[in-house]
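Hi R.,

Here's the chain you asked about this morning:
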Amino acid sequence: MSETPVSLSAAERFSAEQAVAAGTDFAELRVAAQGLFWNEFRPSDGACRIWHWRAGQARCLTPNGFSVRSRVYEYGGGSFCLSDDGLVFVNEADQQLYAQDLKGGLPQLLSAGQRRYGDLRWSNGQVLAVEESHGPGAVEHRLVAIAQGSREVLAEGADFYASPTLSNDGSRLAWIEWSRPEQPWTATRLICCQRQADGQWSKPRCIAGEQGPQQSLQQPHFDAAGRLYCLSDCNGYWQPWGETVTGWRPLPAATADHAGAPWQLGASTWRPLDRQGYLASWFDNGFGRLGVCLPDASVENYSGDYSRFRCLDLDDQHIYAIAASATCSPAVIAINRHTHAVQVLAGGGPPPPPPTRPPPPLPGGGPPGFFPPQKPARPPPPPAGFFLGCLPWGPAPPAQSRAPPVLTGGDRHQSPHPCGTGTGGRSPAAARRTHQPSASTALPQWRRHRPWFFLPGHER
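And here is the predicted structure, written out as tokens:
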């Protein structure tokens, strides 16, 4: 066994506060007539708060005592939505819905009970949400519509739900659902129903995912004409599909994933633009790309100097995104749709500076930038019967973490963020690939193992 050479006489002081100081991150960006909104997590604050950008200035809307974070499925996501005159959010402490106006008033409780909520969408004076109930027997999920003093169940019976979406005229409702033992990146179903003349919803109809090979579907959207679109990995990549005159068909798209695996709710990596194509981000050799994909299969590139994009939205003048690169920490950016000029609205600082001293020489070479501590005296052997090892225990995802993302070559592994969206995992459709999955879609090997111990007096 090789031994660590002597390098430092004592360990450098580095506090936990310093270690997480660069962990500020952003998630769940939304734009409306009132301005631009995003969820921001600051380690020094220990809370997720909504920020509002308007007229060249940003202000925090979330008062002390609140933190905007959902815990549905434990990974959360979709923790706020914009209403007609403000916003509705999930408070981390009690997982209830609160309505807040933009004039500075205190949030008002909108829901009641011990249920959790996530994946919020606003439509026609109601909040559409995934609801989670923890009973004595099992955890149940359903789709609900909540307004002040009322609660309507929209769908129930499946094990899991995501992405409740209404068409602009309120006549069609779509969502994603799946059942055990599947995961949202292995096999899901796209469901749709129609509002009838009496105001009730018709019997749900499966648009995709029920017949034929398994497929993972995510991020459904309606365009202005009421046509339904969704990302599907039917062809081995998450690519846009939609309703056309010839049926449910794939749209012109790059041969690449247009989303990461849906660990969390509320992802937004693409938006249909009616008959003008769609806005999307996708992976290209480990790097993220951003562009408008036109109906003739041409692409208007908006990537610029960034290599990672998530939480997309747009208006008539700008494309908004949370972007990052190997040389730039996550930032909320606005890209002019005509000039491609980029404005950084929040974040975007440089990464921490490199060490001021060179690495010590290592016999036979070693990882650059790694500074091993001084080799201590060899510790005594452990007591009899003690053993530490690592046991494969299934591809379970990691616990929700507040750790900042780790940039690796132009892509990154990111465990689910406390207020945003993470990446990882993959569906069986990956078996049909002919390429090597990118870092954002491959399941990191460390997620496949858990530590296990033998202690004195305990049988194996």
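One quick note: Residues 390-416, 420-428, 431-460 have pLDDT under 50 and may be disordered.

Cheers,
M.
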